[in-house]
Amino acid sequence: MLKIINNYREPTKEARALQEALEKQGVTVYVEVNDGFKSIDVALPKAKINIEVDGIQHLTNPHQIVADLNRGYYSHKKGYSTMHIPNEMIRSHLKEISEALAEASKIKEQEIHVHLS
Question: Are 100 and 116 in contact (CB under 8 A)?
């Protein structure tokens, strides 16, 4: 279970834009959530989806890449899937991304509900 811990971090402009776009579509969204191991940029808890909105260092810094791989592993162990979206994609394709994520969230919520029934 995702434990909401207020760690007083402000979301990036891109993470905030994604949050607002998803909320307009009725998706429950939390930003800057600490799961006990790391801070998650955008969390869709009902669908068990974590979204990391990444700067270029997540693709060009080998140490950051390794850290991200390890972080994804711990989320997966808790039953959460992690998606990485570059800042540039949020800036240029927010509408399409938020619409697709809202639909994916519904699909994942249904899958979770079926498995729990």
Answer: no
Which residue range is the domain that position 112 belongs to?
A: 13-116
How many independent structural domains does the chain possess? 1
Q: Give a yes or no: residue 49 inside a domain.
A: yes
pTM: 0.86
Least Cα distance to 93 among 11, 12, 21, 16 occurs for 21
In a domain? residue 69: yes
DSSP one-letter code for 6: B
Element (H, E) at 35: none
Q: Nearest CA to 80 among 117, 38, 114?
A: 38
Conformation bin of residue 39: beta by default, left when phi > 0, alpha when psi is -120 to 50: beta
Rounded to an integer, what distance in angstroms lies between the CA atom of residue 79 and that of residue 38?
A: 15
Rounded Cα gap, residues 109 and 63, in angstroms: 33
Give yes or no for a contact between 64 and 21, defined as CB atoms under 8 angstroms apart. Answer: no
pLDDT tens per residue across span 62-92: 999 999 888 888 889 889 999 999 999 999 9
DSSP letter at 90 equals H
